[in-house]
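Much of what follows relies on a compact textual record of a protein's fold. A record is reproduced here so that you can trace the correspondence yourselves:

. . .
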Amino acid sequence: MFDTHVNLHGEPFSEDLEEVLERARAAGVTKFLAICDRFDNFESVLAIARSHKDIWCSAGVHPHHAKDFPDLTVEALKHAASNPEVVAIGETGLDFHYGYSAEQDQVICLRKHISAARDTGLPLILHTREADELMADILEDEYKKGAFQPLLHCYTGGAALAQRALALGAYVSVSGILSFKSARDVRAVIADVPMDRIILETDCPYLAPVPMRGRRNEPAYLTHVAEALADLKELPVDEVKQITDENAVRLFDKVSKQ
C-alpha cells in the first residue's frame, strides 16, 4: 500500500517516528508521501524524505496558512520541486469553514500552486472544504490555460465537484472518514468514482479510521481505509490494495522513476 498523505514532521510523531514507520511497514505500507503544510516547514519535510528510502514529499502551503505566505512565488515552488524527493505540489486549496486565511488570499495561493503543478508536471494535492463550486470553477478555468493533474485529497465534498474534477482527469483519495458511520454522503460520492481514479491515505495523525477512532492516527491504519473501500466497492481487500497502489504510483510517477 501507498499512504499518499502523511503529516510526519510535527509534534505528534516527534518522539517515536521510526517506530511508527516500522509498524506501518509491518502492516504492508511500502511507500509514504509526507505533506508540506507551510513553506517554512519544507526543509523539515524534505529531511524526513531524504532520510528514508520509502518516503517522498510535497512542496506547498495549506489554505489555512495562505495569509502567512503572501510573497510565495511559482518559481519558489518549482525550485523546491526540483528536489528528487518532491513528487507533488501542495497541499493547497480552499477552506472556507474556519476562515483562518481570507478567501482571496487562498485563491491567489491556489492559483500559484496550479501554475507550479502545470510547469513541473507534478500532481496537485487539493484540500477543499465548503468551497466546492469555486474550486471546480477555478480548476476548469485554469485547465483551459494548460493541463495539470488534480488530486482531490481526503475527499468529503459533493458529487458535483468530484465529477467536474474527474472530467479533468483528477484522482480522488479516501481516508479513514470513509469508515465513519456518519459519512454516508461521502460513501455515496465515492461509490460513483471509478476504481482506477481512487487512492488511499491516512492523513495521519488526524482522522483515525474505525476501529481506531479516538487514537492518534498512524500509517499502519491504512489497511482499515482499504477495508472500508473494499466494503463500499464490494471487492476483495487485497484487490483494492493492489489497484490503489498501482493508481498512486501512476499518479506520482516521479516515484517510479527513482
In short: Strands lie at 2-6, 31-34, 55-59, 86-95, 124-129, 150-152, 171-174, 198-200. The longest helix spans residues 103-120.
